[in-house]
Amino acid sequence: MKKRRSSPKNAPAEKPWFLRQKTLEIHGGSIDGDRNLRPGLYRTTAFALGSFERGRRLFAGEERGFIYTRINNPSVDTLERRLATLEKGEACIATSSGMSAVTLIALHLASSRGHIVASNRLYGGVFHLFREELPKLGIHVTLVEKPFDLHAWEKAIRPTTKFLYVETPSNPVIDVFDIAALARIAHEHHIPLVVDSTLSTPALEQPLTKGADIVVHSLSKYMGDGEVIGGALVGTQELMDAVRLSWFRDTGPCISPDNAVVLCYHIESLFARMHEHCENALAVGRYLSRHPKVRKVFYPAFGPDARRNKKLMPAGFGGLMAFEVYGGAKKAKIVLENLKLFWHAPNIGEARSLIIHPATTTHGQLTPKELRHANIPEGMLRLSIGREDPKDLIYDLGQALSKI
Ligand code: PLP
């Protein structure tokens, strides 16, 4: 669309000139008829269907309109339009959590004994879903143990493979994957690439612009700023309509309108917050990478792949990082228990900095061998770097590390 500079009128419809990402977090997805400056809260179960014929058409998917909050709702719709715009997708389905979004897309694309090829660098809950639960439904998942090796992905693809799945950056090792290269492999095999973009958010990366077909989010992290649980799928209108009228409608993993409104408010500050998270993580990472008691820092800006990673994610890597102390889990425990400012909590992307020991918590469902293959050592501590002054975070880490 041609760029045009003019002052916005009061009309809230989609603006006729090109809006930048920073503006879209506040205005994205607005449509003719939006009259509320702030997203309205529609706390209701059902909507009037109108005529007998309209009721039939709505239920058959022949007409768009609000039916029942398990299927759609105006507050949720505002969130969905905003997310779709930010991700450069046609449509979105907001869900009750990130896990329900992953489950939904797996059921939709791979039910009837389908096969999935996924990176083994995954959030522990998704890893467990893929390894334990989906196989019970006849959906088998090959976890690629060398996910940086594109041939390993190729080799894992079978005639029954329904999609490729990658989390980038990954939790907790913060591996950055080449979305465009994986999309090429997927498309050569006529299957879609699904990307979990929770840790980057659309402020740092938009996978659909790099060739991915579907984006998955846990909105419980940066988007929700520590206040609500939610998830999302973004993709084509056709796919989102198909999911909404099948597995989504029939299994019910909808988000509440209240949570959708809270998410819209928090998304309005996403870009500024992500910038702070990135800056603070860099400062903490620099400090830890020089600390004599730290064996390794896991953050894409450091190490031999830093240049490659910066090329893949020039806007930054977000606030999640990890580090390994010398001395394994015993020493990691001492550091964790001596921190004064960091909260010991299982979340990512809040204003306050958080710490956790992945091997015994978020990734405790992996076997010791799987932990090794996923590059998660016993002495690793994961940090969700918040938006405090980084000097205070560094001071706290320094005093805790001095105890080992
Ligand atoms: N994807 C990633 C990368 C995550 O870190 C998480 C949770 O930590 C999830 C998905 C699952 O999201 P939720 O907790 O919203 O179900």
Automatic annotation (TrEMBL):
GO CC, any one term: cytoplasm
Keyword Cytoplasm in annotation: no
GO terms of molecular function: carbon-sulfur lyase activity; hydrolase activity; pyridoxal phosphate binding
GO biological process entries: transsulfuration
Domain of life: Bacteria
Pfam families tied to this protein: Cys_Met_Meta_PP
This protein's UniProt keywords: Hydrolase, Pyridoxal phosphate
Cofactor(s) needed: pyridoxal 5'-phosphate
Family: Belongs to the trans-sulfuration enzymes family.
PANTHER family, alphabetized: CYSTATHIONINE GAMMA-LYASE, TRANS-SULFURATION ENZYME FAMILY MEMBER
Protein name per UniProt: O-acetylhomoserine sulfhydrolase
Organism: Candidatus Kaiserbacteria bacterium GW2011_GWA2_52_12
